[in-house]
Amino acid sequence: MSIRGDDIAARARGLIGMRFRPQGRDPMLxxxxxxxxxxxxxxxxxxLPADYDLRGEHLALxxxxxxxxxxxxxxxxxxxxxxxxxxxxxxxxFHVLLCTGPSFIHADAGLRLVVERxxxxxxxxxxxxxxxxxx
Length: 135
Prior knowledge:
By secondary structure, the protein is of the alpha+beta class. 21% of the residues lie in helices and 30% in strands.
């Protein structure tokens, strides 16, 4: 069964207002940026790395994990609804966003909530990934 980008974006919108929690995988307990993207794409929590730090991680490791989860890199171009966007928020510090088209959804550690923000992305984009089956 293929998952359409609009369906992923709609699932992500259903997570807005959920609590932020580092390493969060369960929407009822709290989500981090990886948890938001995974929950929206329908990736089971047990398929995610159990312990990681997006600070100091090399982009190649993040890309490897995204490939393992069935995502494919999007060549140069605009992110579309349902795409996973990896931004570099500081030197070797990455953050995962879920593109909805005109906006993005992410776990905001400062607000301690999952929120939706209008584009453009506030940080440099390090890569865009499309979940397998996304159109």
